[in-house]
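Support request, please re-run this one:
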Amino acid sequence: MNIKPKVEEARDFWSKVAKDNDWYVEPFYVQVWIDKDGKVLDSVSHRDMTRDYIISIIDFNKMSYQEKLDFISERNGYVEDNVGLDESGNEFRDDNGQALFLT
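Re-run finished. Output below.
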């Protein structure tokens, strides 16, 4: 799932709002909430943001084994001792605080 176009759509929308209300700055960043199917749930921006934030609404208990593997792969992660880890070695956590276990 490529979420970059969805982030850019949010950026386009919020940059117009910012320009219309005199708070547009460069570079322009957004925060986007995306569900596991790639649907944008909400977005926001603010002139003081220093980077983009993409927040995934995830519940690992509702994912199949293959969806969990895809989730890890799409985020350049890996599996160690049946736990999904990000590229820095941190456990992936869903919105319930649950680690990504591959069992």
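The two ends are 23 Å apart (CA to CA). Strands lie at 31-35, 40-44, 53-57, 78-80, 83-85.
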